[in-house]
Amino acid sequence: MRRLEAKTIRQAVEDLCIKANTILRKDVLKALKLSLKKESSAGARNILEAIIQNASIAKKEKLAICQDTGMPIVFLEVGQQVNIRGDVNQAVTKGIEDGYKKGYFRPSVIRDPLSRGRPQYSPVLIHADIVRGDKMKITVLPKGFGCENKSRLCMFKPTAGFLEIKRFILETVKDAGPDACPPYVVGVGIGGSAEYASLLAKKALLKDITCGKTKNSGRNAKLEDELLKEINSLGIGPMGLGGKTTALGVKILTYPTHIAGLPVAVNISCHALRSAGTIL
Predict the structure, then answer these.
(1) Quick one: residue 104, left, alpha or beta (phi over 0 = left, psi -120 to 50 = alpha)?
(2) Cα(141)–Cα(206) distance, integer angstroms
(3) How is domain 145-272 classified at the CATH fold level?
(4) Residue 217: what pLDDT?
(5) Tens of pLDDT along 143-173?
(6) How far apart, in Å, do the first and last CA atoms of the chain sit?
(7) Can you tell me whether residue 99 is helix, strand or coil?
(8) Beta strands in the chain (DSSP E)
Protein backbone atom coordinates (compact mmCIF):
# COMPACT_ATOMS: atom_id res chain seq x y z
CA MET A 1 0.00 0.00 0.00
CA ARG A 2 1.36 3.42 -0.98
CA ARG A 3 0.31 6.61 0.81
CA LEU A 4 -0.48 9.77 -1.16
CA GLU A 5 -1.17 13.11 0.49
CA ALA A 6 -4.13 15.21 -0.69
CA LYS A 7 -1.88 18.29 -0.74
CA THR A 8 0.31 16.56 -3.34
CA ILE A 9 -2.76 16.03 -5.52
CA ARG A 10 -3.77 19.68 -5.06
CA GLN A 11 -0.36 20.93 -6.17
CA ALA A 12 -0.31 18.58 -9.17
CA VAL A 13 -3.74 19.80 -10.32
CA GLU A 14 -2.67 23.44 -9.92
CA ASP A 15 0.41 22.86 -12.10
CA LEU A 16 -1.60 20.94 -14.71
CA CYS A 17 -4.15 23.79 -14.96
CA ILE A 18 -1.43 26.22 -16.00
CA LYS A 19 0.27 23.75 -18.34
CA ALA A 20 -2.97 22.72 -20.08
CA ASN A 21 -4.14 26.28 -20.62
CA THR A 22 -0.85 27.73 -21.86
CA ILE A 23 0.90 24.90 -23.73
CA LEU A 24 -0.87 23.29 -26.68
CA ARG A 25 -0.56 19.52 -26.72
CA LYS A 26 2.36 18.25 -28.82
CA ASP A 27 0.20 15.95 -30.92
CA VAL A 28 -2.27 18.73 -31.73
CA LEU A 29 0.54 21.15 -32.66
CA LYS A 30 2.12 18.46 -34.84
CA ALA A 31 -1.22 17.85 -36.59
CA LEU A 32 -1.63 21.58 -37.22
CA LYS A 33 1.83 21.80 -38.79
CA LEU A 34 1.19 18.74 -40.96
CA SER A 35 -2.13 20.23 -42.10
CA LEU A 36 -0.38 23.49 -42.99
CA LYS A 37 1.97 21.59 -45.32
CA LYS A 38 -0.97 19.91 -47.08
CA GLU A 39 -3.26 22.93 -47.26
CA SER A 40 -3.48 24.63 -50.67
CA SER A 41 -6.00 27.37 -49.83
CA ALA A 42 -4.28 30.68 -49.08
CA GLY A 43 -6.96 31.70 -46.58
CA ALA A 44 -6.79 28.36 -44.79
CA ARG A 45 -2.98 28.56 -44.65
CA ASN A 46 -3.16 32.03 -43.11
CA ILE A 47 -5.53 30.79 -40.40
CA LEU A 48 -3.37 27.74 -39.61
CA GLU A 49 -0.26 29.90 -39.43
CA ALA A 50 -2.04 32.27 -37.03
CA ILE A 51 -3.18 29.35 -34.84
CA ILE A 52 0.37 27.95 -34.69
CA GLN A 53 1.80 31.39 -33.93
CA ASN A 54 -0.80 31.91 -31.20
CA ALA A 55 0.26 28.62 -29.58
CA SER A 56 3.91 29.68 -29.72
CA ILE A 57 3.22 33.07 -28.10
CA ALA A 58 0.99 31.53 -25.42
CA LYS A 59 3.72 29.09 -24.43
CA LYS A 60 6.48 31.71 -24.44
CA GLU A 61 4.51 34.37 -22.55
CA LYS A 62 2.62 31.89 -20.31
CA LEU A 63 -0.70 33.20 -21.52
CA ALA A 64 -3.96 31.35 -22.09
CA ILE A 65 -4.15 29.78 -25.57
CA CYS A 66 -7.82 30.83 -25.71
CA GLN A 67 -9.83 33.35 -23.71
CA ASP A 68 -12.34 30.58 -22.98
CA THR A 69 -10.35 28.62 -20.42
CA GLY A 70 -13.17 26.17 -20.28
CA MET A 71 -15.08 24.05 -17.83
CA PRO A 72 -12.35 22.29 -15.84
CA ILE A 73 -12.69 18.52 -16.20
CA VAL A 74 -10.39 16.24 -14.21
CA PHE A 75 -9.84 12.55 -14.91
CA LEU A 76 -8.38 10.41 -12.12
CA GLU A 77 -7.03 6.89 -12.54
CA VAL A 78 -6.47 5.72 -8.98
CA GLY A 79 -4.42 2.61 -8.30
CA GLN A 80 -6.19 0.26 -5.88
CA GLN A 81 -3.01 0.08 -3.80
CA VAL A 82 -2.99 3.85 -3.21
CA ASN A 83 -4.00 5.09 0.23
CA ILE A 84 -5.02 8.75 -0.08
CA ARG A 85 -4.69 10.81 3.06
CA GLY A 86 -7.21 13.64 2.92
CA ASP A 87 -10.20 14.69 0.81
CA VAL A 88 -9.54 14.04 -2.89
CA ASN A 89 -12.46 16.09 -4.21
CA GLN A 90 -11.48 19.04 -2.06
CA ALA A 91 -7.84 18.75 -3.15
CA VAL A 92 -8.79 18.69 -6.84
CA THR A 93 -11.20 21.62 -6.48
CA LYS A 94 -8.64 23.71 -4.57
CA GLY A 95 -5.98 22.84 -7.14
CA ILE A 96 -8.22 24.05 -9.96
CA GLU A 97 -9.08 27.27 -8.13
CA ASP A 98 -5.44 28.01 -7.29
CA GLY A 99 -4.22 27.15 -10.79
CA TYR A 100 -6.80 29.31 -12.52
CA LYS A 101 -6.13 32.26 -10.22
CA LYS A 102 -2.36 31.91 -10.54
CA GLY A 103 -2.60 31.74 -14.34
CA TYR A 104 -5.06 34.66 -14.49
CA PHE A 105 -7.53 32.46 -16.34
CA ARG A 106 -11.17 33.36 -16.77
CA PRO A 107 -13.67 31.92 -14.27
CA SER A 108 -16.46 30.32 -16.30
CA VAL A 109 -18.43 28.12 -13.91
CA ILE A 110 -21.87 29.16 -12.65
CA ARG A 111 -23.22 27.22 -9.69
CA ASP A 112 -26.90 27.35 -10.66
CA PRO A 113 -27.50 26.49 -14.34
CA LEU A 114 -30.98 28.06 -14.31
CA SER A 115 -30.62 31.29 -12.39
CA ARG A 116 -27.05 31.64 -13.70
CA GLY A 117 -25.21 34.15 -11.50
CA ARG A 118 -21.62 35.27 -11.18
CA PRO A 119 -18.96 33.00 -12.78
CA GLN A 120 -16.56 31.17 -10.46
CA TYR A 121 -13.73 28.65 -10.75
CA SER A 122 -15.57 25.68 -9.28
CA PRO A 123 -17.14 23.21 -8.72
CA VAL A 124 -15.11 20.88 -10.89
CA LEU A 125 -16.19 17.88 -12.96
CA ILE A 126 -14.31 14.82 -11.70
CA HIS A 127 -14.30 11.39 -13.35
CA ALA A 128 -12.52 8.69 -11.35
CA ASP A 129 -11.59 5.13 -12.32
CA ILE A 130 -10.07 2.51 -10.03
CA VAL A 131 -7.18 0.72 -11.73
CA ARG A 132 -4.45 -1.71 -10.77
CA GLY A 133 -1.20 -0.52 -9.23
CA ASP A 134 0.06 1.94 -6.65
CA LYS A 135 0.02 5.17 -8.64
CA MET A 136 -2.48 7.87 -9.53
CA LYS A 137 -2.77 9.44 -12.98
CA ILE A 138 -4.30 12.91 -13.14
CA THR A 139 -5.43 14.56 -16.37
CA VAL A 140 -6.86 18.06 -16.58
CA LEU A 141 -8.99 18.94 -19.61
CA PRO A 142 -10.19 22.57 -19.81
CA LYS A 143 -13.13 22.24 -22.22
CA GLY A 144 -14.39 25.37 -23.93
CA PHE A 145 -18.12 25.53 -24.48
CA GLY A 146 -18.12 26.93 -27.99
CA CYS A 147 -17.31 23.39 -29.05
CA GLU A 148 -18.90 21.57 -26.09
CA ASN A 149 -22.26 23.03 -27.14
CA LYS A 150 -21.98 21.06 -30.38
CA SER A 151 -21.92 17.69 -28.59
CA ARG A 152 -24.54 15.19 -29.72
CA LEU A 153 -25.97 11.85 -28.55
CA CYS A 154 -28.03 9.42 -30.59
CA MET A 155 -29.61 6.24 -29.25
CA PHE A 156 -29.56 4.06 -32.35
CA LYS A 157 -31.48 0.85 -32.78
CA PRO A 158 -29.23 -2.20 -32.33
CA THR A 159 -29.62 -2.97 -36.05
CA ALA A 160 -27.89 0.28 -37.08
CA GLY A 161 -24.83 -0.17 -39.26
CA PHE A 162 -21.62 1.76 -39.87
CA LEU A 163 -23.23 3.88 -42.59
CA GLU A 164 -25.90 5.23 -40.23
CA ILE A 165 -23.36 5.92 -37.51
CA LYS A 166 -21.00 7.65 -39.96
CA ARG A 167 -23.88 9.76 -41.29
CA PHE A 168 -24.74 10.89 -37.75
CA ILE A 169 -21.13 11.84 -36.98
CA LEU A 170 -20.73 13.71 -40.27
CA GLU A 171 -24.00 15.57 -39.77
CA THR A 172 -22.88 16.57 -36.28
CA VAL A 173 -19.68 18.09 -37.65
CA LYS A 174 -21.57 19.71 -40.54
CA ASP A 175 -24.04 21.26 -38.09
CA ALA A 176 -21.15 22.62 -36.03
CA GLY A 177 -19.87 24.29 -39.19
CA PRO A 178 -17.62 27.25 -38.35
CA ASP A 179 -19.25 27.91 -34.96
CA ALA A 180 -16.88 25.85 -32.80
CA CYS A 181 -13.56 27.14 -34.21
CA PRO A 182 -12.35 24.46 -36.63
CA PRO A 183 -10.15 22.62 -37.38
CA TYR A 184 -11.71 20.16 -34.97
CA VAL A 185 -10.72 17.07 -33.09
CA VAL A 186 -13.72 14.75 -33.00
CA GLY A 187 -14.20 12.33 -30.11
CA VAL A 188 -16.68 9.48 -30.56
CA GLY A 189 -18.06 7.11 -27.93
CA ILE A 190 -19.92 3.99 -29.01
CA GLY A 191 -21.67 1.63 -26.59
CA GLY A 192 -22.36 1.57 -22.88
CA SER A 193 -25.38 3.69 -21.97
CA ALA A 194 -26.43 7.25 -22.78
CA GLU A 195 -24.20 8.85 -20.15
CA TYR A 196 -21.30 6.43 -20.64
CA ALA A 197 -21.16 6.90 -24.41
CA SER A 198 -20.90 10.65 -23.77
CA LEU A 199 -18.07 10.08 -21.31
CA LEU A 200 -16.28 7.82 -23.82
CA ALA A 201 -16.54 10.56 -26.45
CA LYS A 202 -14.94 13.03 -24.01
CA LYS A 203 -12.21 10.55 -23.07
CA ALA A 204 -11.49 9.95 -26.75
CA LEU A 205 -10.25 13.54 -26.96
CA LEU A 206 -7.42 12.58 -24.61
CA LYS A 207 -5.97 10.12 -27.12
CA ASP A 208 -2.94 11.06 -29.23
CA ILE A 209 -4.30 12.12 -32.63
CA THR A 210 -1.00 11.59 -34.46
CA CYS A 211 -0.07 8.13 -33.19
CA GLY A 212 -0.23 5.11 -35.48
CA LYS A 213 -2.70 2.27 -35.33
CA THR A 214 -2.49 0.16 -32.19
CA LYS A 215 -2.47 -3.63 -32.17
CA ASN A 216 -6.17 -4.17 -31.48
CA SER A 217 -7.66 -1.05 -33.04
CA GLY A 218 -8.22 -2.38 -36.57
CA ARG A 219 -11.93 -1.68 -37.05
CA ASN A 220 -11.92 1.56 -35.04
CA ALA A 221 -8.80 2.81 -36.78
CA LYS A 222 -10.35 2.15 -40.18
CA LEU A 223 -13.51 4.02 -39.18
CA GLU A 224 -11.42 6.90 -37.78
CA ASP A 225 -9.53 7.19 -41.08
CA GLU A 226 -12.73 7.07 -43.15
CA LEU A 227 -14.42 9.70 -41.00
CA LEU A 228 -11.41 12.03 -41.07
CA LYS A 229 -11.29 11.93 -44.88
CA GLU A 230 -15.04 12.51 -45.22
CA ILE A 231 -15.06 15.32 -42.64
CA ASN A 232 -12.19 17.05 -44.43
CA SER A 233 -14.08 16.75 -47.70
CA LEU A 234 -16.89 18.92 -46.25
CA GLY A 235 -14.88 22.03 -47.14
CA ILE A 236 -15.61 23.89 -43.89
CA GLY A 237 -11.90 24.47 -43.33
CA PRO A 238 -10.03 26.42 -40.65
CA MET A 239 -12.39 28.87 -38.92
CA GLY A 240 -15.01 28.01 -41.54
CA LEU A 241 -13.25 29.85 -44.38
CA GLY A 242 -12.86 26.80 -46.59
CA GLY A 243 -9.98 24.45 -47.26
CA LYS A 244 -8.88 20.86 -46.76
CA THR A 245 -8.56 20.96 -42.98
CA THR A 246 -11.90 20.76 -41.20
CA ALA A 247 -10.62 18.22 -38.66
CA LEU A 248 -7.17 17.33 -37.34
CA GLY A 249 -8.20 13.94 -36.06
CA VAL A 250 -11.01 11.56 -35.15
CA LYS A 251 -10.74 9.21 -32.18
CA ILE A 252 -13.20 6.47 -31.20
CA LEU A 253 -13.68 4.57 -27.95
CA THR A 254 -16.12 1.67 -27.63
CA TYR A 255 -17.67 -0.28 -24.76
CA PRO A 256 -20.09 -3.23 -24.47
CA THR A 257 -23.75 -2.25 -24.52
CA HIS A 258 -27.25 -3.68 -24.04
CA ILE A 259 -28.77 -6.02 -26.62
CA ALA A 260 -31.60 -3.54 -27.27
CA GLY A 261 -29.53 -0.43 -27.92
CA LEU A 262 -26.56 1.25 -29.58
CA PRO A 263 -25.63 4.62 -28.03
CA VAL A 264 -23.34 6.86 -30.07
CA ALA A 265 -22.02 10.18 -28.73
CA VAL A 266 -19.92 12.83 -30.45
CA ASN A 267 -17.82 15.37 -28.55
CA ILE A 268 -16.16 18.05 -30.67
CA SER A 269 -13.11 20.01 -29.64
CA CYS A 270 -11.92 23.20 -31.28
CA HIS A 271 -8.33 23.45 -32.54
CA ALA A 272 -7.27 24.45 -29.01
CA LEU A 273 -7.60 20.94 -27.61
CA ARG A 274 -5.90 21.39 -24.25
CA SER A 275 -5.09 18.71 -21.75
CA ALA A 276 -2.19 17.88 -19.48
CA GLY A 277 -1.50 14.87 -17.30
CA THR A 278 0.89 13.52 -14.70
CA ILE A 279 1.43 10.36 -12.69
CA LEU A 280 1.94 10.53 -8.92
Answers:
(1) left
(2) 8
(3) 60s Ribosomal Protein L30; Chain: A; (3.30.1330)
(4) 65
(5) 999 999 999 999 999 999 999 999 999 999 9
(6) 14
(7) helix
(8) 2-5, 71-79, 82-85, 125-131, 136-143, 152-156, 184-192, 247-257, 262-269, 276-279
